[in-house]
Amino acid sequence: MRIATLTSTIIALGLIAGTTFAGEADTARVKRGAQLAAYGGCVDCHTPFKIGPNGPEKDMARGLSGHPAELVLPAPPKLDGPWNWGGAGSMTAFVGPWGISYASNLTPDRETGIGAWSENDFIQAMRKGKHLGVGRPIMPPMPWQSVGSLPDQDLRALFAYLKAQPSVKNKVPEYVPPVASNR
Prior knowledge:
It is built from 5 helices and 5 strands; from the N terminus they run ααβββββααα. It has about 180 residues and is α+β, with helices and mostly antiparallel strands. The strands form 2 sheets. It has a 3-stranded antiparallel β-sheet, with no helix packed on it.
């Protein structure tokens, strides 16, 4: 009976130790992802601005939630010549020869963010420049080519960081293709 108890105790301790090491690995992965997100400026475009006591500032309560669903913008200004693209004051909507693009919701919300995405979906999207790796193209100014050049380990870390963020329900407007001109 003592051997069975001792064996059970050893197995239990091994499971606890394995869980601790896995937890440490996950924490390290999320920390690395945070570094990559900061370096890549993910918050710069995927977090809307709000007016604070010192002027415009990132609304971290909506961190990485993309263009606010309730912020309906007027038609963009006409762009031509050397000035051929621009951005909204929210820093979450952009216009150029590609049309109008809105920063996506990168929070783990399952309905409006990346909560239903798998790690592979994310890696394929960054490698191929297409939503979920197979959908419509990811439009400028999203630097998917640069992000996609990261090693798999770094892309996994970035995804782990995004999945560790607070979930924000925010349905970003759909991409608007360019209007065909009569040239």
